[in-house]
């Protein structure tokens, strides 16, 4: 049976109440004799021509109201039933469902989520005909982002910076939450270094099996479903291993993720690995692999960081785009903030990594 709105139930309840109070039987069984006598005594107190007239008028009015309710039900019951049916459901509401209106807050959240999904959607949906640069492009990646405080500090910089988040772990539990509110993000994947290790991270080591790589990348993809770009955290040993890099690139390809080489060592084998696992441009505007051009903060000194930033701008003007990498150090973020006016007048466009257009 189709369910109807609470309005209908209320009307039916009102009808029953009116029927009860206006159609009490004149003859009752012996058990109700005392009640009948009490009612008769009460009526006798008001037994006057005015009282009779008033009672008659009330009865007439109630009868008219009842008839109006009946007419209303006949006229509107079908419409009420239709309004209670779930759209696209031929059987209407199931027995366990309750119709509920969307609140303004929920509607706003839905709109915001839709807008966020559009921002996070990888660029492969773009037509390559639109891949035209109006200015040289500069993408600045901020590595090692692990908490909201660091992300908030990045957001205070008045131009686009790409946060590279550590994968979710016991020490980095909030990075998936940051990804949900970031206009764009990438993942900073810990790869084995020659002389450096942080036990709090989960690492991929040179010589790891394809199954281990697949399991780790699949987990990251579940935690960050819109992920489209990964760069390496350290990796001076891993990226020199041709076989390991080939397996990693193959695994990333399977998950529609492009690799950006941080070039933590000059002898990286990433480009050679593409011979075994060819580069797939999931973004049609990025027809060649991306790699870091400049490290901004190898020296934590604001003038030195500024010099590196100027170098990145010059490279962007020479080849059309450049990628610089920094970290969420106070000196780095202050140097970037101080350079706002310079960058605005530099003639380059600050972009997220997924907006880079390669030749």
UniProtKB/TrEMBL annotation:
Q: Name one Pfam family in it.
A: Polysacc_deac_2
Annotated GO biological process: carbohydrate metabolic process
Query: Lineage from the top down?
Result: Bacteria, Pseudomonadati, Campylobacterota, Epsilonproteobacteria, Campylobacterales
Q: Region entry Disordered: which residue ranges?
A: 83-110
Q: Which SUPFAM superfamilies match?
A: Glycoside hydrolase/deacetylase
Q: Where is the composition biased (Polar residues)?
A: 86-101
Q: Which organism is it from?
A: Helicobacter winghamensis
Which InterPro entries does UniProt cross-reference here? Divergent_DAC, Glyco_hydro/deAcase_b/a-brl
Protein name (database record): Divergent polysaccharide deacetylase family protein
């Amino acid at each position: 049976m189709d369910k109807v709105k609470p309005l209908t139930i209320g009307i039916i309840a009102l009808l029953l109440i009116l029927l009860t109070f206006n159609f009490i039987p004149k003859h009752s069984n012996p058990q109700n004799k005392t009640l009948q006598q009490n009612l008769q005594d009460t009526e006798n107190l008001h037994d006057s021509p005015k009282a009779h007239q008033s009672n008659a008028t009330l009865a007439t009015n109630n009868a008219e109201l009842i008839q109006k309710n009946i007419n209303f039900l006949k006229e509107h019951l079908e419409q009420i039933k239709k309004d209670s049916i779930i759209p696209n459901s031929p059987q209407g509401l199931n027995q366990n469902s309750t119709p509920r209106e969307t609140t303004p807050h929920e509607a706003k959240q839905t709109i915001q989520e839709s807008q966020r999904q559009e921002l996070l959607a990888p660029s492969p949906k773009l037509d390559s005909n639109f891949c035209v640069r109006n200015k040289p492009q500069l993408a600045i990646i901020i590595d090692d982002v692990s908490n909201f405080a660091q992300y908030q500090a990045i957001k205070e910089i008045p131009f686009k910076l790409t946060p590279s988040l550590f994968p979710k772990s016991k020490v980095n539990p909030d990075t998936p939450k940051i990804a949900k509110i970031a206009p764009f993000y990438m993942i900073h994947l810990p790869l084995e270094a020659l002389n450096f290790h942080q036990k709090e991270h989960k690492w991929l080591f040179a010589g790891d099996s394809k199954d281990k790589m697949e399991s780790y990348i699949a987990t990251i993809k579940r935690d960050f479903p819109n992920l489209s770009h990964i760069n390496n955290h350290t990796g001076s040993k891993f990226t020199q291993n041709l076989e390991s890099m080939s397996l990693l690139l193959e695994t990333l390809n399977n998950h529609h993720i492009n690799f950006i080489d941080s070039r933590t060592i000059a002898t990286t084998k990433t480009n050679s690995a593409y011979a075994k696992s060819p580069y797939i441009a999931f973004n049609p505007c990025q027809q060649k692999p991306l790699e870091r051009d400049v490290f901004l903060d190898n020296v934590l000194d604001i003038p030195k960081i500024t010099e590196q930033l100027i170098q990145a701008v010059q490279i962007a003007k020479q080849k059309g785009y450049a990628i610089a990498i920094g970290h969420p150090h106070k000196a780095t973020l202050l140097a970037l903030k101080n350079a706002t006016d310079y960058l605005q007048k530099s003639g380059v466009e600050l972009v997220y990594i997924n907006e880079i257009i390669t030749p």
